[in-house]
TrEMBL record:
It comes from the Eukaryota. Residues 30-126, 127-235, 237-352, 353-453 form the Cadherin domain. GO terms for molecular function: calcium ion binding. The lineage of its organism: Eukaryota, Metazoa, Chordata, Craniata, Vertebrata. It is found in: Cell membrane. This is Cadherin-17. GO terms for biological process: homophilic cell adhesion via plasma membrane adhesion molecules. Residues 1-22 form the signal peptide. Keywords: Calcium, Cell adhesion, Cell membrane, Glycoprotein, Membrane, Metal-binding, Repeat, Signal, Transmembrane, Transmembrane helix. InterPro entries: Cadherin (IPR039808), Cadherin-like_dom (IPR002126), Cadherin-like_sf (IPR015919), Cadherin_CS (IPR020894). It is a single-pass type I membrane protein. GO terms for cellular component: plasma membrane. Its main location: membrane. The gene is CDH17.
Length: 580
């Protein structure tokens, strides 16, 4: 007997002796789908099952998720040679096949499922090794500080993954130990016995333990005690005097520095100071920015000052904290200060009510029609004189006193559909300062352009003698504003006397064809007028000819000359044969 065979027999003997089951069907049997449950962490070389197969099967093979752990002997003995790990793979899907001596499959492959059962072989771990939290001084016992979170990768919802938290150390133990607690199963961190004072200690360092039924893990928790806002800001002085500034002082200029102090813990919401203007600046022309390091307040010009609106501002500041004051503490007169801002007059340019004025009129308005108006005011109350600049077509004039704008010449949308000019407002007297605005006049279309040919048609001819009626296509347009659907012209002959020889046929809204009605034409030049109607409101009609009011029909005559063909052809600057 070989060494391997002796080992197999020994393993089976040990298994039978250990379990007491040696009969057929408990640890051996025919090849069929089976499921086995095995605890993780067991020693290797554990026998799982002995498969049997009838001849001609002589050997077995194993495939699937073996992970190099599961093997099968040729005689069907299935075992694992390494310890299993449920956290690596909880279920192994295997297949067993029985083969004959030639390697052909006789039975299977048959599915074999190995379920790996959990044991408590993983210690719990915190998401981080160090936690930080904070609690305000004088907070009530039971106040939540935060939540600790630990995790155990053993099987969920089993005793192996149930975790418990507890505090094992507190440093310092002042005013006593047991100032904090952690909920056993949730990990919620809370203030326990009493309110804390930052004067006792600004910081506590705690050691927290999390454990399952076999393992323990520690983490460090730092709790910072936050000062409460029980001190108000106090101005260094209550009156910052008078300050005189011209109204053209640049926006963004710092005009004053104010200072208050707060006795709460530095660089916290309890000691940071915010300054508000609570009186004397209803238009919001000033603002105060706080220096985060010194708590100084820089008073700045936020919007242009205006002597004509308010010449004197009696400003009142309030200094306050972003954090609310504790109950029983209120701001008092020490948190308020004032100063007087005197604004002096500066001669300013006239101000238009808007920078772009717009108007719309029909292009056929009569001369002298009012087409728009502009308005401007001088901040110092001086009279204003209006004038136009950039009226390159000479279409407009402006009343220098009222700012009303009138037409002085025929307007033409086809020449310029949006007419732009500049309006100048100049103060009368003073320094004669001026400012400008834009006036845009939109012209709406009227039907004032008759239809015309889209181009000049030249050098058109028919061959003579014509063998069949011929035709030519021409296109029309006009210069008025077109609808989205495009123009819809109608076409007709300019004289009824031409109808026996010629006809005009509409192709679409812009194209038509001129055709001969027979072939009995003389050799000459024909003048064919065409009427084109645009169907507008009012409708306009144009009469055109081809080319240049003349339709030239050119004939080619063939004659014999000394036995050779000779062609005499009419000459034209541009020759385009018409269709026969």
């Amino acid at each position: 007997m070989t060494t391997q065979a002796r080992l197999d027999c020994l393993c089976l003997l040990i298994l039978y002796l250990t379990t007491g089951y040696g009969q057929e069907g408990k640890f051996s049997g025919p090849l069929k789908p089976m499921t086995f449950s095995i605890f993780e962490g067991q020693e290797p070389s554990q026998i799982i099952f002995q498969f049997k197969a009838d001849p001609p099967a002589v050997t077995f093979v194993l495939t699937g998720e073996t992970d190099g752990i599961f093997q099968i002997q040729p005689d069907g003995l299935l075992y694992h040679n390494k310890a299993l790990d449920r956290e690596t793979r909880a279920v192994h899907k295997l297949q067993v096949s029985a083969l004959d001596a030639h390697g052909n499959t006789v039975e299977g492959p048959v599915p074999i499922t190995i379920e790996v059962k959990d044991i408590n072989d993983n210690r719990p771990t915190f998401l981080q090794t160090n936690y930080q939290g904070s609690v305000r001084q004088n907070s009530r016992p039971g106040s939540n500080i935060g939540t600790l979170t630990a995790h155990d990768i053993d099987e969920e919802n089993t005793i192996n993954s149930v975790l418990g938290y507890k505090i094992v150390d507190q440093i310092p133990k002042v005013p006593r130990d047991g100032l904090f607690l952690v909920q056993t199963y949730s990990g919620t961190f809370q203030l326990a016995g009493q309110s804390l004072k930052k004067q006792d200690t600004p910081q506590y360092n705690l050691t927290v333990e999390v454990s399952d039924k076999d393992f323990k893990t520690l983490c460090h928790v730092q709790i910072n005690i936050i000062d409460i806002n029980d001190q108000i800001p106090i101005f260094e002085k209550s009156d910052y005097g008078n300050l005189t500034l011209p109204e053209d002082t640049a926006v963004g200029s710092i005009i004053l520095t104010i200072q208050a102090t707060d006795a709460d813990e530095p660089h916290t919401g309890s000691s940071k100071i915010l300054y508000r203007i609570i009186q004397g600046d209803s238009d919001g022309r000033l603002e105060v920015e706080t220096d985060l390091q010194t708590n100084a307040g820089y008073v700045k010009v936020k919007k242009p000052l205006d002597f004509e609106t308010v010449a004197v501002h009696n400003i009142v500041f309030q200094a306050e904290n972003p954090e609310p004051l504790v109950s029983g503490v209120q701001y008092n007169a020490s948190s308020f200060a004032s100063f007087r801002l005197i604004v002096t007059d500066v001669n300013e340019t006239p101000q238009f009510s808007q920078q772009v004025f717009q108007a719309k009129v029909s292009e056929d308005v009569p001369k002298g029609t009012k087409v728009g108006n502009v308005t401007a005011k001088d901040p110092e109350g001086l009279d204003i004189s209006y004038s136009l600049r950039g009226d390159k077509r000479g279409w407009l004039r402006i009343d220098p006193v009222t700012g009303e704008i009138f037409s002085v010449a025929p307007l033409d949308r086809e020449a310029e559909s949006l007419y732009r000019v500049e309006v100048v407002a100049t103060e009368v007297g003073g320094s004669s300062l001026s400012s400008t605005a834009n006036f845009h006049l939109a012209l709406t279309d009227v039907n004032d352009n008759p239809p015309r040919l889209v181009k000049e048609y030249t050098g058109l001819f028919f061959c003579y003698p014509p063998k069949e009626p011929g035709s030519l296509i021409f296109e029309a347009t006009d210069d008025d504003q077109q609808l989205l659907r495009g123009p819809h012209f109608t076409f007709s002959l300019g004289s009824e006397s031409l109808q026996k020889d010629w006809e005009v046929s509409k192709i679409n809204g812009t194209h038509a064809s001129l055709s001969t009605k027979h072939t009995n034409f003389e050799e000459k030049v024909y003048h064919i007028p065409i009427r084109i109607n645009d169907g507008g409101r009012p409708p306009l009609e144009g009469t055109v000819s081809l080319p240049g009011i003349i339709l030239a029909v050119v004939f080619i005559r063939m004659k014999r000359n000394k036995g050779q063909d000779n062609v005499e052809r009419a000459q034209a600057s541009e020759v385009e044969p018409l269709r026969n």
